[in-house]
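Tokenised fold entry reproduced for everyone:
>
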Amino acid sequence: MKRILVIALITAFTATAAFAQNLTLGGYFNSGLGMVMIGEDEIFLKAFGVDSDSNGYRFRLNGSYQNEERSAGARFRLQSQRTTALSGTAASGAAPSDHSHNVSGFNMYFSIPFAYGFANFFENKLGFSAGIVDDSSWQTADWWFNDDAGEGLGVLLKINPITGLNFGFGAYTIAQLGGGANNVLARNIDTRVDLENAKYTISASYTLKDAFYIGASFRTESTAGGANATGTTATVGSTIDDNKGSSMVVGDLRIFAVPNLTAVVAAAADNLQDFENRGLMFISETFAYKFNDELNIGINAVQFIYQNGNNMSMLFNLWGSYAFGNVVPRMDLVYFLNGTSDRATAAAASANPRYHRRGYAPLSNAAEHSVLSIRPSVRINLDGRTHFEIGNVTYIDSATSNQTFWGNTGERITNVFYLDFRWNF
């Protein structure tokens, strides 16, 4: 009996050790504090994670497991932050009723943005994933969108016939919401979806080593994300449509041929099902050059083209940084035509440069708005995993005289001094 027990313990220990050897964990924690000054009369403090662009904080734990042959495994993410939900909770699985940033009451809870199993066949030429899928194979690499047409709860088939060429075909019953809603599922987990209302995706990409990458993904109109886009303003840095129920195509081109140069151009067209009236196109450019280990400069830009007759929105972000060892000063200058800064209210103000484009929905008065921001900052790298950032953002919003900025006519100046912390593990 003792011999059997010893053998059982040795077997269990060996199995556990083998499992742990193939299990990889990692993640980060980010939070900070900003002092927001709106004009001369309103001053308040706001907890905000600049690095994760999240009110309050964000905690993220990523995990992956593969068998010894690396032919099968699972990936998951546990995340805790706030949600903008006015009704419904993560526990109940109810979808948030509002995805805009101008809401009251940010709750904190845990979510599982993705959890799926995968299997590869024929020397990785054929792959299959099932669960809450979030595959980044066709995610754009630009500074603004940094996403694909989206996955969700369902299945994904990947085909890699030759080196560098990848195809994907997905079918999903429920989409994920954006980062502002903690990447939760958009509908109840037991939602029944008819065949014609599911979300289907088609993706393709080709990579020529040391030369270029080109990729694109397409999704059909569906009820997987709840209601389709409602025409609310969107935040630079977030997806075009958090509901992810509209039909959309997105893709990007990356150039690898020039050493030390980052060059990405991404583009998308959203609301293809009613493109003439509610369509939106964007083109996003990301260029940066690393002169040496100290000096980096770059320009980020994005242009929004609306199909409803309103003005185009254009944003330009010129930046540069210089490292003095572990201390890295940086300067950002941003100009956004036909856009505004973040709504600086107690519920929605951020300690991070965030901007709202205008003209997504038909406006009765499409007057020109613009915002100029200046952001000096200093990052202090304590080690390879931990850093602090101290910065100050000044927004100068302006508009025609008959327009207001949440109580300020014609012009509004907002200043945010912030301290940010991030720890990777």
Observations:
- The helical segments are 2-21, 275-278.
- The longest helix spans residues 2-21.
- Confidence is low (pLDDT under 50) at residues 85-106, 227-242, 344-350, 360-366.
